[in-house]
Design a protein that fits this description.
This protein is an alpha+beta fold and 424 residues long. The protein is 31% helix and 26% strand. α1 (10-20) links the parallel β1 and β2. The chain binds adenosine-5'-diphosphate and magnesium ion. The site of adenosine-5'-diphosphate has 17 residues, from β7, β8, β9 and β17.
């Protein structure tokens, strides 16, 4: 088979890495890819949101399956376009991708089908939103309805802060059209976890548990980021909780989407808040998590290609995925200054030393090639992922890798995976 992966971050590197191991696969292409992906796939210089060019490329190359990494092409309708051209593609269509593309859409779905989540109200009028905030009090959460690159959510500790957030979103339009509508939500206390399930719109195939680290600094301090590290399995998701998430969240969500006339196929990402052993949904995403994809795909023993193809063809019959009985931990190395502004173009050294290590893989995210040298070119630069017999062993492996890699200003958290250790 010839497979095209769309995207060029750590998630797409992990997908291309896993797909390339399949005996079914002849060639992996990645658009646009990155210097790390170039070691195992043919990178094609087409942006992930240039759907016309991607479609032309897939037709010309007679691609057997296209796998979409990021959310933007999904919400732009890449799946509808490929399907109309008779091409197999993994991911939800435009209507179903609203589950991520509109927070109001996903809240209405959860309300309709009794899926546990925070109480909320949706507003297109600024004064009504403010009145609701004053009535509810703080803490309270303000969310721009549309995609805002992970910056559209403000967890407000005071009524004034929440009103300020509404004004930023609705009056000053800091997130553009994404802020035409806001969701105001009850603050949920607890521990976050990520849960993923493959689905063809009817059948589901859940993945192993995982947990992200969203804050920039150790001990979950500082502002939110795209994710500073992740590990799998996550002990906060006990066997009982795993079953409860599948039964009370994943199944009714997929059934509800189908019932409402927009069946969801691809991978469903459920962001969870867990409190006293009970799960509630923070949000849904329409694609794999990044960085969670990195430890999850490293632990996946089953061939991923038949699963991706079955989801695309609406014929998912597989009942379970085999996992290595190990833990995997991914430490994200980011540019200095992130999540604020940062400088690019610093040479990254030590990558070859890590490539020679066993049980450690460096997934590239924001790197580029400059005069034959790999340099930092984005906010999150690398995901150093280690595998080991236990979470402790995997943490040690990942940080052994991190210690070999250097560039000016590189920053990373020192406590990735510690939450899992604290749970014993
Ligand atoms: N209702 C809530 N209660 C507490 N924290 C929340 C709530 N909603 C969101 N958050 C926090 O804000 C983060 C971002 O919110 P989320 O809905 O996942 O939006 P996005 O990922 O699109 O920015 C979450 O990971 C969580 O830490
Ligand atoms: Mg989120």
């Amino acid at each position: 088979m010839k497979i095209l992966v769309v995207g060029g971050g750590g998630r797409e590197h992990a997908l291309a890495w896993k797909i390339a191991q399949s005996p079914l696969v002849e060639t992996v292409f990645c658009a646009p890819g990155n210097p790390g992906i170039a070691h195992l796939a043919k990178c094609v210089d087409i942006a992930a949101d240039n759907i016309d060019a991607l479609l032309d490329f897939a037709r010309d190359e007679v691609i057997d399956l296209t796998v979409v990494g990021p959310e933007i092409p999904l919400t732009l309708g890449i799946v509808d376009r490929f399907q109309a051209a008779g091409l197999d593609i993994f991911g939800p269509n435009q209507a179903a991708a609203q589950i991520e593309g509109s927070k109001g859409f996903s809240k209405r779905l959860m309300e309709k089908y009794g899926i546990p989540t925070a109480a909320y109200a949706s507003f297109t009028d600024r004064d009504q939103a403010v009145a609701y905030i004053e009535e509810q009090g703080a803490p309270i959460v303000v969310k721009a309805d549309g995609l805002a690159a992970g910056k559209g959510v403000i967890v407000a500790t005071s009524v004034e802060q929440a009103i300020g957030a509404v004004d930023d979103i609705m009056l000053d339009k800091v997130f553009g059209a994404a802020g035409a509508s806001v969701v105001i939500e009850e603050f949920m206390d607890g521990e976050e976890a990520s849960f993923f399930a493959f689905t063809d719109g009817t059948n589901i195939l859940p993945l192993a548990s995982s947990q992200d680290h969203k804050r920039i600094f150790d001990n979950d301090e500082g502002p939110n980021t795209g994710g500073m590290g992740a590990y799998s399995p996550a002990p906060v998701v006990t066997d009982d909780l795993y079953g409860e998430i599948v039964e009370t969240i994943v199944k009714p969500t997929i059934a509800g989407m189908a019932k409402d006339g927009c069946p969801y196929s691809g991978i469903l990402y459920v962001g969870l808040m867990i409190k006293d052993g009970k799960p509630r949904v923070v949000e849904f995403n329409a694609r794999f998590g990044d960085p969670e994809a990195q430890p999850l795909l490293m632990r996946m023993k089953s061939d991923i290609v038949p699963v991706l193809q079955a989801c695309a063809r609406k014929e998912l019959r597989q009942e379970a995925i085999d996992w290595y009985d190990t833990a995997a931990v991914c430490v994200v190395m980011a540019s200095g200054g992130y999540p604020g502004s940062y400088d690019k173009g610093f040479e990254i050294t030590g990558l070859e030393d890590v490539m020679a290590m066993d049980d450690v893989v460096v997934f590239h995210a924001g790197t580029s090639l400059q005069d034959g040298r790999v340099v930092n070119a984005g906010c999150r630069v690398l995901g150093v992922t280690g595998m080991g017999e236990s979470v402790a062993a995997a943490i040690a492996k990942a940080y052994d890798g991190v210690a070999k890699i250097r560039w000016d200003g590189a920053q990373f958290r020192k406590d990735i995976g510690r939450k899992a250790l604290n749970r014993g």
